[in-house]
Amino acid sequence: LDDLDILHRTKISKLIHKYYQEEHARIIHEAQHALGHISFTSDLWTDAQQRGYMAITLHFCAKDTHQRLNLHARL
Q: Does the entry feature the keyword S-adenosyl-L-methionine, yes or no (predicted)?
């Protein structure tokens, strides 16, 4: 490995933000096309250093490419 193989911190930050935007748009699209209702669940916790964390999961039903009904969960 040399310095050219390691991405700069600003490049990594931009890639993470771009990935977030793409995933956010995909999840919104999936939720808008869900069959019936959607549900949310959440979990809150702290680690040993008392840092807080929160996870939110979206649950919904949608049909796959073969028109079979599937239950989906997105974190």
A: no
Return d(Cα 42, Cα 37) in angstroms, integer: 17
Report the distance separating Cα 8 and Cα 11, nearest Å.
Answer: 5
Polymer length of the chain: 75
Extents of the domains making up the chain: 3-74
- Residues 67, 59: contact at Cβ < 8 Å? no
- The residue among 52, 59, 53 whose CA lies nearest residue 75 is 59
Cα gap 40→68, rounded to integer Å: 23
Residues of the chain with pLDDT under 50: none
**Model confidence, pTM:** 0.67
Assigned token pair, 57: 């999961």
Strands 35-46 and 69-74: unpaired
